[in-house]
Design the sequence.
């Protein structure tokens, strides 16, 4: 395993990050989830990413249980706040002070820790003044409940606004957690330059495009049983944007590229995102320990320039680059029951 500074902060994380979105507390039984976490630890992964919304708080509980017995100081535990949790009442969502302050306490209890290393705003809240949110984050940092703060799926302008307030409040705003893969490059034009300027590092999710970049989905062939594309609990919806013959056919052209450098297609995909110097870590998920072991094989890999070019040529115009896609996917507001 290789390790990188998170942006220009003093925090060092494993460049492969273990995440439990769509798995722990949902798709994967607890024993299997624990086995995956232990496989990650055995492979040198020290950084674990979760969120209160995953499986409506159950994922945090599973991760907290799985990490028991480990030296806390040797781990970096990351979680997030925004999306509805609990009974999903009118204050059970968003980045208002009430929800943020209550959410950190719930997360710490479920994770069985006194603090998280990084507390992240899971989305931008257009209904709450940003200053209110950032003051709440400052109070969390100053109380010792989180060491650093970050955001997920914010635009470059929103990141700049947050960074300005963080500087005034004297709290370390160090990271952005966006979707990023060979197929989804919407952060490259605006978010990455802004983050680089401000000293933020990217901790990217879905580097394998929810499994599409493994090559297991073949045009004209039945979907593999038990795959993300067959998951009715949310996985199929997330992967649907890539499930067309044009994209899947292009992905099949990556097989000889991966073979050329002695990598599996999954390893090639993870290694590709790690070539971006603004990326501090790539989040992988797993339902079986052997998936963790395979993906860790991307750590420390340097892809030659000709391989990066071959990837671009294989994928062609199916790559999504429009930075406006980040804004399009942002919640327009919080629904409040009457």
Sequence:
């Amino acid at each position: 395993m290789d390790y990188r500074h998170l942006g220009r902060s003093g925090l060092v994380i494993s460049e492969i990050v273990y995440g439990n979105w769509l798995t722990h507390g949902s798709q994967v039984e607890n024993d299997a989830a624990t086995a995956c976490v232990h496989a990650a630890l055995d492979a040198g992964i020290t950084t674990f990413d979760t969120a209160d919304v995953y499986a409506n708080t159950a994922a945090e509980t599973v991760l907290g249980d799985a990490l028991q017995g480990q030296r806390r100081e040797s781990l970096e535990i990351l979680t997030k706040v925004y999306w509805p949790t609990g009974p999903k009442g009118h204050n059970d969502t968003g980045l208002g002070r009430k929800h943020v302050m209550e959410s950190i306490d719930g997360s710490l209890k479920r994770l069985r820790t006194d603090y998280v290393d990084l507390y992240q705003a899971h989305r931008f809240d257009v209904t709450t003044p940003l200053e209110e949110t950032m003051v709440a984050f400052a109070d969390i940092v100053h109380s010792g409940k989180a060491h650093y703060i970050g955001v997920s799926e914010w635009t470059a302008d929103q990141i700049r606004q947050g960074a300005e307030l963080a500087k005034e409040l004297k709290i370390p705003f160090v990271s952005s957690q966006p979707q990023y893969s060979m197929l989804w490059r919407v952060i490259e034009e605006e978010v990455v330059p802004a983050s680089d300027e401000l000293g933020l590092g990217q901790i990217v999710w879905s580097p394998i495009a929810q499994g599409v970049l493994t090559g297991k989905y073949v045009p004209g062939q039945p979907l593999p049983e038990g795959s993300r594309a067959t998951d009715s609990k949310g996985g199929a919806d997330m992967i649907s944007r890539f499930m067309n013959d044009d994209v899947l056919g292009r992905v099949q052209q990556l097989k000889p590229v991966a073979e050329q450098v002695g990598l599996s297609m999954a390893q090639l995909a993870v290694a590709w995102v790690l070539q971006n110097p603004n990326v501090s870590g790539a989040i992988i998920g797993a339902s079986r320990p052997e998936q963790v072991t395979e993906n860790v094989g991307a750590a420390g890999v340097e892809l030659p320039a000709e391989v990066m070019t071959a990837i671009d040529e294989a994928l062609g115009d199916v790559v999504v680059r429009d930075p406006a896609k980040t804004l399009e996917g942002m919640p327009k507001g919080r629904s409040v029951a009457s």
Summary: The chain is about 35% helix and 15% strand. The longest strand covers residues 76-81. The mean pLDDT is 93. Residues 133 and 174 are 16 Å apart (CA to CA).
